[in-house]
TrEMBL record:
<dbReference type="InterPro" id="IPR053092">
    <property type="entry name" value="Mitochondrial_unc_protein"/>
</dbReference>
<dbReference type="InterPro" id="IPR028036">
    <property type="entry name" value="DMAC1-like_dom"/>
</dbReference>
<dbReference type="Pfam" id="PF15055">
    <property type="entry name" value="DMAC1_Dmo2"/>
</dbReference>
<protein>
    <recommendedName>
        <fullName>Distal membrane-arm assembly complex protein 1-like domain-containing protein</fullName>
    </recommendedName>
</protein>
<feature type="domain" description="Distal membrane-arm assembly complex protein 1-like">
    <location>
        <begin position="29"/>
        <end position="62"/>
    </location>
</feature>
Length: 96
């Protein structure tokens, strides 16, 4: 065998500690990976906001004419909240 020691049956049946697994995995996250990931989320947030608001302005007359219960205010709030969520994910990715 390559390692030289054979694990016991008891050690194979025992699950690994979750915190130890996360601690080992955390070392693989480098700064360039964080920057690229957070930049992607910030870019998606900006694109979502500006393209969504642009589409709402283009279709404002149709939306108001449809007499839907979801008017312009709720649709703008939806677009803003999605964009805010994506920006928050980008900030979280940068910090963690």
């Amino acid at each position: 065998m390559a390692g030289g020691s054979i694990p016991t049956l008891h050690s194979l049946e025992k699950p690994e500690n979750f915190k130890d697994v996360l601690r080992r995995d955390q070392g693989d996250d480098c700064l360039p990976c964080r920057l690229i990931g957070s930049g992607a989320f910030f870019g998606l947030a900006g694109y979502s906001y500006f393209s969504g608001m642009s589409q709402l302005q283009k279709q404002q007359a149709q939306i108001l004419q449809s007499k839907s219960i979801f008017g312009m205010r709720s649709r703008k709030a939806g677009i803003a909240s999605i964009s805010f969520g994506l920006a928050w994910m980008g900030l979280w990715r940068l910090m963690n």
